[in-house]
Amino acid sequence: MKTPQQIVWLALVPLALALTTAGALAQVDQRTIAQQLLDQDNVAARNKALDMAQTVGAQNASPELRAALMTTLAREGQRHAERYEAGRRGEELEPMADPEFIARVSRVVIELQDPQTIPALTGALATGIQVPRALARFGEQAAPAVLRTVADPDGWYDAVGGGLITLRFMVEGAATRPLSSGVRDQIRRVAKERLTGKQHFTILWRAIDLASVLKDAELTRIVETIASDANEVAARGVDDPEVVELTQKRAADLIAGKAPLPRP
Amino acid sequence: MKTRIVLIAAACVWLSIVRAPDASAYVVANALWYDTGADTLHGVVYTQKDWWDPTSGWEFNPSCECEYYYESWVTTLARLYHPSGSLQSQGLTSDPFVAGLEIHLGPPPAYGVWTQLGDHYAETAWWDNWGMFLFQDTAYLAGTGQQANAIKCGDERGNIIEEYRAGQVNLNPTCSDFASSGGTAHFTWSELNGGFQDGNPHNPWGIVRQGLKDGLEATRSNYNRGAIRLSSGYRCPHGNANVGGVQQSYHMHGRAGDMYSWDHTWTEQEFNLLRQAALNTGNTIELFNWTTYTDRHLHAAW
Questions:
Q1: Beta pairing partners, B70
Q2: What is the dihedral of CA B46, B51, B54, B56, to 10 degrees?
Q3: Per-residue model confidence (pLDDT) at position B111
Q4: Which residues of chain B have a CB within 8 Å of the CB of A100?
Q5: How many CA atoms lie within 13 A of B243 on its CB side?
Q6: Distance between CA A256 and CA B207 in Å, rounded?
Q7: Residue of chain A whose Cα is closest to the Cα of B247
Q8: For B167-299, where are the alpha helices, taking DSSP H only?
Q9: Does residue B250 belong to the interface with chain A, where contact is any CB pair within 8 Å?
Q10: What mean pLDDT value characterizes chain A?
Q11: Average pLDDT over chain B, rounded to whole?
């Protein structure tokens, strides 16, 4: 004859077993999703896996799935960067299997809100405004990786530009996410580097934007020189007169107090 | 004895043929179809009375001062069942010859989608005009497999929605997501809705989000170097596949546009001037690079 307590315990055992099994199944499913994400040859399965990862959600994502998402983004970033390099070498480019996948996976990785995603996100700086915003939200924590990208003399101009925008967002958001004087000084130095010497015009533009929010006397003088002297712009490698004019106008507008776009 | 047996048998046969209102009423038509205009699923059962009627004949009608043929009527009760087995709809009708019933299931539950798959069938029973039960039958109408995801917008939008389902696109548009007009100051509806190589077979219907319209206008304003040529805006899933678009392209969400300059030679520099303009709108969710596509268009999504 069983006591009521024994009966309760006996009833709880299958329940616990069921819950444990369900948990294990969920882990197995996430493992499958992670594996499919990493399978670069199957575009359709990878897309589906990404949708499923999004459904799982950042809160419930297992460490394995989170790692797979970060790896996937890092690979995609690398793939786009290599393509840029191939283009720069004058190689003929074949169509990419899924060029837009990087933006989709970026969105899912951003939702993780995990500092461990900083390296992968930094590798995707060339693909729009979402990544600079996400990195800026990490504040100083993301600064070293972004500074490395911006300082790279052989860096892809879209990645460097994205990095400069990120740094500007960090400076403009310093009221809520303070920057140490050391990091601020590194930002100032890298801005100066990108305001001098030969630069792609988009890098020069984003460096002018950054300088305008740093409120540094030396940088402001450089921007004033650019605004007033077309030869100074040409000296930085911008030779098309229309682009020289646009560069000077941008510098003049920012000196006059106009807020740089896009806004943080 | 033998003769008596033969006579009784003959009488029975005769009675069974000419006297009995036998079970020869039958379903002459049944169908199940979706009426896109009314947005309803219809079942229909027509039954034909087919027996000898001792009360039929010709009679003088004083109102028209003419002879008319009269016959007893048959009353039909039809019930239409949902695949779940529950009674969906029923009706009762009487007619001297063909008792026809159209049974309307009404609009489907959500987004115009029948979620219950399976067979619809109608159960019919007939009585003569003296209330004598004649016959009962179950008539298969059709399955709702096809109707399960059929279009309920009453027009071409439904076909586009079906493409999303069939193509496993990660978007489930509803009828209200579509529009048939609505250009902006600088982009016509036909540019926003299609404009790609093979056109939009569903024209004028398409999905164009406000974000795309605002993003394109803001880009044009920031660019400030003349018009933007939109080579591709909204794409239905088939259209997207035809032009080699990616499986989950934002073109199918009505959020993406492919751009070139109208007024300037399309160089890497011009591409970057336009890209910076799009970047400055501040809310692009996709914005790619000079080397991303082999035809060098600027793809942006908002």
A1: B57
A2: 40
A3: 30
A4: 246, 248-250, 286, 288, 299
A5: 23
A6: 41
A7: A44
A8: 189-192, 210-223, 237-242, 268-279
A9: yes
A10: 90
A11: 74
Say if residue A232's pLDDT is above 80: yes
Q: Is the pLDDT of residue B284 over 60?
A: yes
Per-domain boundaries in chain B:
27-150, 154-301
> Which tokens in the block code for residue B298?
């600027």
User: What distance in Å separates the CA atoms of residue B202 and residue B199, rounded to the nearest whole number?
Assistant: 9
Question: From residue B279, how far is each of A7, A134, B11, B185 by CA, in Å?
Answer: 66, 15, 96, 21
B293 and A98: CB-CB below 8 Å?
no
**Is residue B294 less than 8 Å (CB to CB) from chain A?**
yes
| Least Cα separation, residue A113 to chain B (angstroms) | 17
pLDDT of amino acid B216? 98
Instruction: Tell me, yes or no, if A159 comes closer than 8 A to chain B by beta carbon.
Output: no
Minimal CA separation from A157 to chain B, in Å? 10
Q: Which residue of A has its CA nearest to B283?
A: A129
Task: Report yes or no: A191 and A164 within 8 Å, Cβ to Cβ.
Answer: yes
Tokens 């002018």 sit on residue: A208
Identity of residue A77: G
| CB contact A133 to B (< 8 Å) | no
Q: Which residues contact B290 (CB under 8 A, 6 or more apart)?
A: A87, B268, B271, B272, B275, B296
Distance of residue B266 Cα from the nearest chain A Cα, in angstroms = 14
ipTM of the complex: 0.90
The secondary element (H helix, E strand) that includes residue B261 is strand B256-261
Contacts of A104 in chain B (CB under 8 A): 248
- Asked if B21 and B128 count as a contact pair (C-beta separation under 8 A), the reply is yes
Q: Which of B184, B279, B273 is nearest to B233 (CA)?
A: B184
The pLDDT tens digits for B91-138 are: 677 766 666 666 555 544 323 334 345 566 666 666 666 667 766 767
pLDDT of residue B42: 63
Mean pLDDT of B25-50: 58
> B27-150 adopts what CATH topology?
Immunoglobulin-like (2.60.40)
| Class of domain B154-301 as given by CATH | alpha beta
Is the four-CA dihedral B221, B225, B227, B233 of positive or negative sign? negative
B265 or B60: which carries more pLDDT confidence? B265
* Residue linked to tokens 């009833």: A11
Tokens 């926003």 locate to B192
What's the CA gap between B220 and B274, in Å, rounded?
8
Handedness of CA A185, A191, A192, A193 (dihedral sign): positive
**Domains in chain A: ranges and CATH:** 16-113 (no CATH), 129-264 (1.25.40)
A178 in contact with B, Cβ within 8 Å: no
Q: How confident is the model at residue A4 (pLDDT cuts 50, 70, 90)?
A: very low
